[in-house]
Amino acid sequence: MEKRxxxxxxxxxxxxxxxxxxxxxxxxxxxxxxxSLPGRSALVEYDPQIISLEKMKSEINxxxxxxxxxSDRSVVExxxxxxxxxxxxxxxxxxxxxxxxxxxxxxxxxxxxxIANQAAMLLALANFVYCGRGFFVSAARQxxxxxANMDTLVALSTSxxxxxxxxxxxxxTTVWGARGIEWHTYFDASVMIITFVLTGRLLEEKAKNxxxxxxxxxxxxxxxxxxxxxxxxxxxxxxSTIAVGDVLEVHPGEKVPVDGDVTWAxxxxxxxxxxxxxxxxxxxxxxxxxxxxxxVLAGTIVQQGKLRFRARQIGEDxxxxxxxxxxQEAQGSKAPVQRVVDRVALVFVPVVAAIALxxxxxxxxxxxxxxxxxxxxxxxAVLVIACPCAMGLATPTALMVGIGKAAQENVLIxxxxxxxxxxxxxxxxxxxxxxxxxxxxxxxxxKADELxxxxxxxxxxxxxxxxxxxxxxxxxxxxxxxxxxxAARYWAxxxxxRHYRSKVLPQDKENLVRRLQAEGKRVAxxxxxxxxxxxxxxxxxxxxxxxxxxxxxxVAQVTLMSDDLRRIPxxxxxxxxxxxxxxxxxxxxxxxxxxxxxxxxxxLHIVGINFQITPMWASALMAFSSVSVVLNSxxxxxx
Length: 639
Fold this sequence. Notes:
Elements: E1 2-9, H1 14-25, E2 30-36, E3 41-46, H2 53-62, E4 66-67, H3 72-104, H4 113-130, H5 133-144, H6 150-175, H7 187-208, H8 214-219, E5 225-230, E6 233-238, E7 247-250, E8 259-266, E9 274-277, H9 279-282, E10 288-290, E11 295-296, E12 301-304, E13 306-313, H10 319-332, H11 340-367, H12 372-385, H13 389-408, E14 411-413, H14 416-422, E15 427-431, E16 437-439, H15 453-456, E17 457-459, H16 463-472, E18 476-480, H17 485-495, E19 499-501, H18 506-518, E20 523-527, H19 533-538, E21 541-545, H20 550-555, E22 558-560, H21 567-601, H22 615-634
Parallel strand pairs: 15-18, 15-20, 18-19, 20-21, 21-22
Antiparallel strand pairs: 1-3, 1-4, 2-3, 5-6, 5-7, 7-13, 8-11, 8-13, 9-10, 9-12, 14-22, 16-17
Helix pairs in contact: 3-4, 3-7, 4-6, 4-7, 5-6, 6-7, 6-11, 6-12, 7-13, 7-22, 11-12, 12-21, 12-22, 13-21, 13-22, 14-21, 21-22
C-alpha cells in the first residue's frame, strides 16, 4: 500500500470535499481517503497494483473536480488562474446586476415595459453564460452522479426564476393579463443570486489563498545536486542518483543533500571539525560542531569549513522527507470543525426542491387550473427565497472582517478553521529560541558554551506578561527547547512558564502535541522554524512568528507579524468574538429560511390570512438577508 497527498482543485464548499471523499473511498484499491478543503488536497492510501493515479483523476474529473498528478508548478498556475477567473466573474456579475436592477426598477428610462423586460432578459442571459456557467455545469455533474451541493440550489433557483421571467416577458400579457392577473419578471433576482454567491466564494478564496503552498516550500529545502567523492575525483550528480554508502562532500554555504555520518571535516577554526547550521531542524541558532562520526541531516547548511560524510538515509527516509510527509498527512486529514452551512447544504437542496414541488402540487390540486399561475408563482417564490446567499456569506464575511481586525493588531489569520478552533484552546506548546527568546548571532559560536545565558540570547519584550495572561485564561503553557537543561529551565523561569522540556527534536514536539490531544486538550502550537513544522501541522491551531521561516508561516494557520507575544491571547479573544458572529449570521440565515419559505409557499392562507411573499418580494428579501449578514459582520470592527 502507498500513501500520498494529491492536490485537488475546484472544491468550493464542504459538500464538495465530501463528494470527492465519498467518490475516492468507493473506488476499488483505495483503503482510505481523507479530503481537506482548506488544504485543497486528498490524502489517499491505495494499492498501485489495483488502481492508478490516472484512474483516480478520471473519476474525480467526472464529478466536476480536478486531481492534479502533474508537476507542482501546474498546481500553482491552476490555483492562480482559477482565482483570477473568479475575480473577473464576480466583478462582471456585479456590473450585470446593477444594469439589470437599473432596467427592472426603472432607474434607466426605457420606452416601454416589453423592451425593458427583453433588455433585462438579455443581460441576465449574458450573466448566466459567462459568470454563472460554472454553477450549472457543476449542478448537472452532481445530479448525474446522484449528489448535490450549493451549486445545485443556485442553478435550480436561478434557472426557474429566469425561465418563468422569460415566459412572462413574451406571454405574460396574453396568459396572465387576459385573466386579470398581475404578472412580473424576476431577472434581477436570478442575477443577484449568482452575484452574491460569487462574492462569497471570492472572499473565502482570498482568506484561504496560499494554504496549499507549504509542502512545495518544504520540498524546496533539499538541494537538487550533490558532490559525490569517487577516488581522487569529485562529481556533481543529481540528488536522485545518490545511493546508501556513497561518500559526499559539502562545501561552505551548501546544503547537506541527505542524512549521513561524517567521515572527515575541517575548518580554519577546527582542524578536525566543521560547523553546520542545524537551526531548521533543532531550532537552535548556534551552529553545531561536526567531527568524524557525527550525524548530519538533509537540508542543514555547512557554515564554516567543509566535510565529507557517508550517505545513511536517502530519498523518503531522510529527516527532512519525514517532516514533509508528516505535514502532508496532517494537512490532508479532516479539519476538526466542519462548517455547519456546508453540512446542511447536502440536505438543504433536496428539501427545498421538494418543498417547492409540494407547494406547486398543493396549490394546483386545491384550486385547479384557475390556480395554476398561483401555483407556479408560489413554487418560484420558494426557490428564489431559499437561495443560499445568506448562508454562503455568513462565514466568509465574518471571517474577512475578523481577519482585517486581527491584521490591524499584526496577527494574520488564514482560515475559518483556525478561528473555530482557537476559541477552544486550553493548552499551548511554544518553542523557545526565536519565539520566546531572541538569539544573539553576533556571539563567537565556538565559545558559546562559555558565555552567560544572557549574552547568548534575551527574553522578548512582554513575553512573561503574555505567558501569564494565557495561564490566567486557564490555558496550560509548555515550553519546548533543543537547548540544554540549565538553559531551558532558566528561560522558562524568566518567562513564568511552569512546564518545559529541554534537548527536544521535532519528533518530541509532535509527540507532546499528540499526547495533549489524547488527553482531550485543544492544542495550539507556536513556533518559528522548520523544526516546528511537524507539530504546527498536527496542532488544532498553529501559530508562526513572522520573522521565522517561510515554511513555518506557510504551514501555520496564524502568523504573528510582530515579536509581541501578547497578540496571542488577543487573537484568542478575537477568535471567540468572530466565531460568535459567524454563529449569529448562520442563526439568522437559517431563521430567515425557516420563516420565509413557509410564507413564500402561502401557508398563511390555511388560517385565513391573505398574505404571501411573491417572487418579487422574495428576491428583495433574499438580497436583504445577504446585506444584513454583511452589516452584522461589520460590527466586529467595533467589538
